[in-house]
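Sequence only, no structure available. Ideas?
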Amino acid sequence: MKKKWFLLVCLVALLCAACSDDASDDKKSEYRVVYSGEIKTLNYLKTSETNEFAVAANLVDGLIEYNQYGVVQPGIAQEWSSNEDATVWTFKLRDDVKWVTHDGKEYADVVAQDFVDGLQYVLDAKNESSTVWSATVVKNGEAFYNGEITDFSKVGIKAIDKQTVEYTLEAPTPYFLSMLNYVCFFPVNGKFLTETGEKFGTTRENFLYNGAYILDKFEPQNERVLVKNDTYWDKDNVLIERIRYKYNKEAATVAPELFLRGEVDTAEIPTSIIDEWFNDEKKKSQVRQTQNNFYSYFYALNFNPQFDAEYEPDNWKVAVNNKDFRKSLFHALDRVSAMLTVEPYNPQDLLSNTITPKNFVDVDGVDYTQLEPLAAMTNNDSFNKDLALQFKAKAMTTLEGKATFPVKVLMPYNSGMPDWANRTQVIEQQIEKLLGADYVDIIVEAGPSTGFLSEVRRPGKFAMIEANWGPDYADPSTYTEPFSVDGTYNKPELAEGYTEANGKTTYLNLLDKAKATIDTAQRYNLFAQAEAFLIEEAFVIPYSVGGSGYVASKLNPFEAQYSPFGVTAEKFKGQKVLEKPMSNDEFKAALAQWEQERAEALTNATKK
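Reply:
I predicted one. Tokens follow.
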């Protein structure tokens, strides 16, 4: 999802307006949001930041969507089929989908060519799309992006007729349908794109809408407002008529009080005050847990440091290229202590020892994380005081005369997220206490609340950083993207001593072998080997899954569209306002019922 910060900008609120006396259909609702992380673009074909494509997901529809149980449903495509080896996919579009302007005026029909134009934009290198890696699944997509071919008609997508679009893929891709839930496969009107040029997506006027909502107001660092699209093909399932995002740089801090005052109707409740809420009878009935999701959280170690000289990037580079040093950090991170900043009651329930979370995909009923050699890591806690100190001793010996101790470890965080700030402080104190101030000096630094991804993480202005990744499709390869050559994280391919005879690193060769394998069982086993190598070499330190915490909200999460991948979770279509917030007991009962219903729905979908 790429991608992607799992920025918890959905500090959301719902407010029911008056309902008419004689018709429940006349009920109006407004969804009010307080947020601190501003978006910089509406260009869904370019961005990979969650808070940006979260807005676009409500303004533009793709070919497919999902119901509340995660079963694929028709979107703009009303039906589809693939050939026997899943290399050619054909989609028949509905004929009642319209592009409209910011003032709701019809601009054009949505047609097959719009999907061709969207993909051509993504694959054009000059547009610098952040999601191009996903689009290269299409035949000749990568070759076009790299300039090896210049004729886009040779790329594996074409409009057969006005209502039929066909994709030809580089290799058999049985999970391709799940990839279409991501923004790089969304349509765009080519005529409008040409007219607006570089202005596309910069304002609400320089944008076309075919989705559930239209952007009625867009004033960065003040307010943005989405209103229901009355021309939307499925408007009867759009139950929230207005979504109002109000900017506040202290959103995460002030949201709970705004909720209690009735100014917003959803607020994340930070760990620092959760006890207060649960000990107050009135507040207790309004707060509940949130669902875990398939975002994977981990600490990335930077092999290409670009931070200021005062933090000694050259010394860090020497240290991080030493496996013993990396392993000392790997085993020193007490993840339970870290997660207490998010979940003070059952932090162990959030821990993850792998990058790919449990229950994401399986082979013949065996969960991917239980495939060898990954299973040994899945079933054992990486935190080990004795091993951490043993690797410290080895590192100080092997790095003697090469690195200066203590090694400065720059660890920035997003200042707009209080729990993240607290967690960073906890980790700093915990690791320094265990490994000793003579060994590491962890330097905590507040980063910007807006643009953290582009200003800190992507430019490599960190030594060690908390990062996350969400899946875009139903295959283990989706979790490899942050660590590949074009990844946005720590670039482990730059680690010294891992280059093999073909000029590629061991990890990349393992990935290439897995990606080239069609048989699902063999494919997943090879990906498990690659992931186990990444973790065993301590290029990355997995520690949790996302979605944890507590929220006061009038949204019922089990009415929302559901999918572990893509932009489905960002959509408001199908959701409505509750009269009162869901309590934790109500949430647990609803969750149990939903899990049972989902299992049945998935089983029935498989039989079709």
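The mean pLDDT is 90.
Hope that gets you unstuck.
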